[in-house]
Amino acid sequence: MSKILKNQIFIPIAALLLLAVFNLIMDPSFFKITLGYNSAGDPVLSGYLMTILDYGSELAILAIGMTLVTAASGGQDISVGAAIAISGSVVLRVLCGRDHHAETMQAPIIVAFLISCVVAMIFGAFNGTLVAFFKIQPMVATLILFTAGRSIAAWINNNELPIVNEVRFSYFGGFIPGIPIPTPFFIAAACVIVIFLVLKFTNLGLYTQTVGINENASRLNGLNPEFIKFLAFVILGLCVAVAALIKVSRLSTINYSVIAKDIEMDAILAVALGGNALSGGKFNMTASILGAYVIQFLTTTLYKFNVPADALPAYKAVVVILLVVFSAPVVRDFISAQWKRLTKKGVTENA
Amino acid sequence: MKEKMKAKKSFNSNTILLLITIVLFMVLYAGGCIAYGSKGFTHFQTFLNILITNAGLICVACGMTCVMLTGGIDISVGALIAMDCMMLAVGMSKGIGAVPMVAIVLLVGVVFGFVQGFLVGYLEIQPFIVSMAGMFFCRGMTAVICTDQVSITEKINATFYKWANTKVTIPFGGYVNNKGKYMVPYVRPGVIVALIVLILIFIMLRYTKFGRSLYAVGGSAQSAAMMGLNVKRIKMGAYMLSSILCSVGGVCYCLNTMAGSVTRALGLEMDAISSAVIGGTLLTGGVGNVIGSFFGVLINGTISSIVKTNGKLASSWPNILTAALLFIFIVIQSVFGALRARKK
Q1: Is the ipTM of this complex over 0.90?
Q2: Which residue among A48, A334, B20, B31 has its CA within the 20 to 30 Å range from the CA of A281?
Q3: CB–CB of A143 and B270 under 8 A?
């Protein structure tokens, strides 16, 4: 029993069960999935669970990068929302060219995606340089992009709102004809498989944890902690580009101030809910990814109870604080001391 | 001789960033005067307008400086101001008087600061996580109170409206406008409040026990604890002070904008942090003062004032420029820090 409790993955699963039971009691129709047809006549599955699968996937992709950044640098990147706005803006700029309402696409989607990947990785590298080489706290360093990012995104397209008139582009955030499961899920699955292969066949995971646990010790062991931190931020940049493609594909356009708003909170929450220490060190990728879906479960549940979108962060902030408080060393020591005292008392009374 | 050198050294490390800041402000302002002199940038009132628009920010930057002196950070300030404005607007439109409403806002600031300070000081959670959660909490609570924009008009609350429209005239520096009328320069009551806060915090940091212990904790928490200071309580005090000053700033801010909405004061935490950093407060704590932060605010204000006077530049430019400025100063700080470490 205690083995199960100690496993990191227990936390997100417990939270998932808790939410599921809550929804089951309040309204069992939450779990209904219906097969319908969209306007193009293709079969699509719909229902709250499908929404979670759909929107949780982009969060899961971000959680991959955020877990690595958290583990390596002991801080979080709060600029992911702004970075999504930038790389989404780049995708549209390349696809639409100069004319913001072009009838045909000016470039293949793959080219636009690759360019946005490069741009996102450059911004990741910018954050990474500040953190790794200039030794600035990750959250202060990323605060720069957090504030300026959306303005830069608007500037890339001259404050215009380009629209892509191409059905194929909407597949990434919607449905591929004939497949009733949302595409983002497959993209996320691909990302997850890639990261697990990388973690299995390279030393990235081990090195990242080493740097996070003790930077000086890792340096003495011949690692290059600066480079590993830098790499973590670049990988996050790549994750951001993938998430941005899904985001802009959903609308075929972009809204600079709203796109991916507050997503940094969700991504950090996913990492925290996965039982990973926000101060860096050891990480569990599976738990983080599961955490992302649990967060989306929470978001969807809140939406279902008519909580306005702007008010969502308030509830999530409370969850973050509760999670962080219960994982704080000070609180843990206090609780275990109290627990010991209680059990000891029980023993003496029994005797 | 040795003592003289020592004095010179401390002068260098503590004052050079402040000097850069003051020079930068003067250069910026002079540049604005030369480029946009014909558009009225040279008038004394332009400078006063910078103060009027940034009265709230001055209060917030003072609080931010105190928190940063302890080596922490508070990114919840912008959202807290949004919540303050919304509370003021909604409370007054429900018929609560101006004075009790301001008192409620200040009380909320105290409570909010207490919770944040407790989490950071006593439970030893990273300040960034705590204040980020605080930021999202306040932004969310603003939407819980009301999701629409609520304006404060004369009909809703005459007292508050009167405060906002009071002109405190200044007896010098006026000019004759193109219609031949003599314009008397003025400031709003918010500016007076902000300047009083500035002076009080300056005195507090320099001469009181609490102020000095903020520096001690930021310099080295361990040594401070060995000296017998209650580090946990001092840290909590810093966060409480920040939130209280932020609430004062929120009232000043609301006097200026006279409306509450969910997106109010978006990115203000960035302005406050960059003001403090530009003013020479170290992110690692222990060094800095509010005069520098004041000039930091003025620099930010001048930038947005220049962009506004130009009229052709997009409104997103001040954001990008502030971020760029913060970036430059952070890198300078980091390089200075590395050089100092190497010297030792």
Answers
A1: no
A2: A334
A3: yes
